[in-house]
Design goal:
The chain is 90% helix and 0% strand. The chain is built from 1 helix and no strands.
Length: 20
């Protein structure tokens, strides 16, 4: 389950970085 959360956070961060 932790892996799932980490994956979600990673994706969110990647999207945020891309947006910037």
């Amino acid at each position: 389950i932790i892996l799932f959360v980490y994956s979600m956070v990673s994706l969110y961060r990647a999207m945020l970085m891309k947006n910037h």
